[in-house]
Amino acid sequence: MDVVVSGEPDGVLKEKTARLSVASNTLLVVAKLAVGISIGSVGIISEAIHSAIDLVAAVIAYFSVRQSARPPDECHTFGHGKYESISGLLEAVLILAAALLIINEAARNLLGGEGTLNVEGIGLGIVVMLLSAGINLYVSSRLMAVAKKTESIALESDAWHLRTDVYTSAGVVAGLVLIRLTGLVILDAVIALAVAAIILRAAFDLIRRSFEDLVDRSLPTDEEARIREIISGHCTDAISFHRLRTRRSGPNRFVDLHLVIPRTATLEEAYGIVKQVENDVRREFPRMSVTIRVQPCTGEDCAACGVFTTCPECDRLALCGWLEERE
Predict the structure, then answer these.
(1) Using CA atoms, how far apart are residues 71 and 9, in angstroms rounded to an integer?
(2) What pLDDT digit, counting tens, does each position of 306-317 carry?
(3) How many of the other CB atoms lie within 10 Å of CB of 212?
(4) Residue 182: what pLDDT?
């Protein structure tokens, strides 16, 4: 499902979308729980628990995107992006707790040999689950669209929660239909276990991704390769770089490196080269913070910049021409 994202500022857009998730999950928790209890369906009750966890996750996501949008301050000079990573980790723990509750309830029904499902009320259960799937499909699509636009891991996590809810709701509907056709009430508990398995998989994936950001793992290989490619475009026989390091904090990315330039370059010329590199990296990665340490060439007899040592004016003209070509 394609969703058009408005051109509002990222912070405002993220907050509005997070509020939409909170509202939709509140509605679904009430509806599923009421119907699940009324017809005695552990499958629908497990889905109500799933939606309740989604609701808590949506609330956490809402507050995390508000915090992450705050500008850097004296105590958080690198910004507040990791609030979103912490949000993802908390959501994963909540999902694990929900899965364990569902497994416990389903196991009790299986060991008891019979369920308490009211077969006559299955029609109402099917209607509620179809409604849930439709609402969550729309909300998750909007969350995912905004997450991609703003690079928000908190909203992306919330979107995957709801997308999982779509799949599990469809599974519960299929199970209820089979129960209606076969009369095998035990299928209700089997469906609940399948729901729990899907939730567990989503939780472990979310834990992995959130933990990677919290421990400052390098950016994905393709992104880091592209950054190297951009910087290499500024390199010549006399200009190079090394010690490239990258990390991510919520929607923000960070890169730092050592840039080696001719030792005869003036401070103004070195600054011009640094700004060119920074601008080109940020042009492709707008949320990138670039830190560059300028390091002079230490070679005693470097053929690449020897002409600059013997002819300062040639050096200055060559570097100025290099800068003009990239402006």
Answers:
(1) 14
(2) 434 433 444 444
(3) 16
(4) 75
Residues 6+ apart with CB under 8 A from 12: none
In the chain, residues under CATH classification 1.20.1510.10 are 10-214
Domain with CATH 3.30.70.1350 in the chain: 221-326
| Contact status, residue 119 vs residue 179, Cβ threshold 8 Å | yes
For residue 302, the surrounding DSSP H or E stretch is: none
CA nearest neighbour of 98 among 41, 167, 52: 52
Q: Which amino acid is at 125?
A: G
pLDDT for res 7: 54
What is the Cα 152 distance to its own chain's centre? 5
Q: What pLDDT, in 10s, does the model give residues 35-93?
A: 878 877 776 777 787 778 778 878 887 887 777 767 777 777 676 677 777 777 777 78
What phi and psi, each to the nearest 5 degrees, are found at residue 207? Answer: -60, -45
Residues 6+ apart with CB under 8 A from 164: 50, 198, 199, 202
Give the separation between CA 327 and CA 276, rounded to whole angstroms: 8
What CATH architecture is 10-214?
Up-down Bundle (1.20)
Burial of 264 (0-12, 13-18, 19+ CB in 10 A): buried
Give SS3 for 72: coil
* Helices (H) then strands (E): counts for the chain: 10, 3
Rounded to whole angstroms, the Cα distance separating 130 from 51 reads 14
Which amino acid is located at 39 in the chain?
A: I
Contact 203, 96 (CB under 8 A): yes
Q: What is the CATH code of the structural domain delimited by 221-326?
A: 3.30.70.1350
